[in-house]
């Protein structure tokens, strides 16, 4: 029986404090503004986050533990990436995401016997605790005083549901099925995603990438980011921000970091008239297996699966909406079924 390692469920690293020693480094050449940023250029011209070796050890231990048990592994990314405007970050550009899609989907992968690496925006919603997170319902509202007023208890009306969630949480933790890896900035996200993808290559087609994180499309290169809080008088009272496009990392993920894993990306739009075309364009551009299109306004009720064969809507029915069914309880099993087909197709071509 493989000994369950002691790698922590909650990460030992923290990402929301700025890494201020990558201050204005004038030795870094200006990004070639005119030409498209080369993905390798990005990783070559930027220093990796200082904690990356710690994450590498945790991820390698986690993957080896599950590989020995022939368990499938899902990398679920969740939450929005930030683009700091100062190294001692006071201002930053954020991408919207509460983390619900990722945290909820991670639970359904776990319930379907996958191990999950949860690459998430630090302090965004997490699997299991999302049900009681302070950002939706204050956890104190689930508690009550004991009759003699000396102890805290879970309010009777929440006991049944909370017990179900607690058992699932405890099982995932005790069986080392969930590894939490945080990010805050797009820089941290890209370096960590690349690292995990390369570590996951050992499990090949038994890996699925579920890219629900809301990733910045533009960033401020290290060579141009000021060390301290921008003073309005220094900029004549006006802040003009000159951002560079973020490398199209999805292409690198499909072509080189995880060439035989199944890759699912999300396309987020707010205009329904362009959603399917944009999702199709992403699938054609990156040549991965599935793009799930969703509109910000209706993302909890409907999504559209876009594959090379065509598109298919997944919509909650009114009774399902009324009963607060998670759309992820439908879309994750569908992805798992597609992953089974994917594995079969890889085996048939001798991979
Ligand atoms: C963020 C939401 C909407 C979930 O919301 P919460 O439940 O509140 O967390 C998620 O479903 C989603 O669409 N995530 C993906 C959003 C996103 O940024 N998608 C990118 C594609 S992945 S980023 C890829 C990069 N731009 C590239 O082209 O390489 C896009 O639409 O362009």
From TrEMBL:
DNA/pantothenate metabolism flavoprotein C-terminal domain boundaries: 204-300
Organism superkingdom: Eukaryota
A GO molecular-function annotation: phosphopantothenate--cysteine ligase activity
Pfam assignment, any one: DFP
Region (Disordered), start-end ranges: 1-23
Single biological process term from Gene Ontology: coenzyme A biosynthetic process
Bias kind Polar residues: ranges: 1-19
Family to which the UniProt record says this protein belongs: Belongs to the PPC synthetase family.
Protein's name in the database: DNA/pantothenate metabolism flavoprotein C-terminal domain-containing protein
